[in-house]
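We keep the chain:
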Amino acid sequence: MRVPKVFDIIRTTDEKFWLENLIKFPSEYRSRGDIVQMERILPLPKVIRKALVAHFYPHNSNAPLDSVTLSSILDDTPNKHCLARIYLGRENGVFTREGFSLRNFPLYLKPMQELGLDVLGLASAMGKAFAIMHWGAGVNGDDVEIVLGSSTVGGEEDEGIDFQHREIGVYLLDFGQCDFVNLSDDPDEVYQAFKGAMVTGDNQLFIPHYAKSRELYAAFKAGYMGAAQVILREKGMEKKFSIEDFMEEYEEYAEDFLV
């Protein structure tokens, strides 16, 4: 799992940057502020977008989707910005012609299984990611997104960037709603902050359901506990926090919030 790289932090007072770039911003965002320059997650390649439309767009299942409709959807500009959200916590969803969009595409559990994706590997990676956010970075992971996107295949620097050859990867992004959690606080307070964020918002769509998808949740739990225990040992906090107790509390807590 990857997190977009941070290239630079631009301050409101950076006169040179703003004089050169402010005019390039959309008019509604043309005001100064502290901003972060980060790596762009590239959309899924066209061949994958085409397959998503052909598979999920509602049409007569006895015949392939007609080429005119397919091209119209693919050529629509918003649909070119396609990242697929990995919803391991929701078995399936409903797609309609009117609301169909490839932008922030919801990839639910059952379709992922039908497509042969390694959902157990994704669940384990997701568990590790939440453990790193919680015990490594000290943030609650509220409203983060876990998506399939792409990046350019690395080559020699003098060859330039080749956007035609890309590799698919799992990305963790959107930390704008995350809250800092002080690990020096009482364990009960820390546990509450973490488990509260795990059952609210879209996190309950990303994290495998503890009761409905037991094998998948077991993979998530194993990934989470393994990473968390390593981090706590490195920080010398393994005696203060019990990951076994935390996961047990999370599962009991989830009973009252997840349907």
About this structure: The chain has three domains: 6-38, 46-114, 119-143+178-255. Residues 6-38 form one domain.
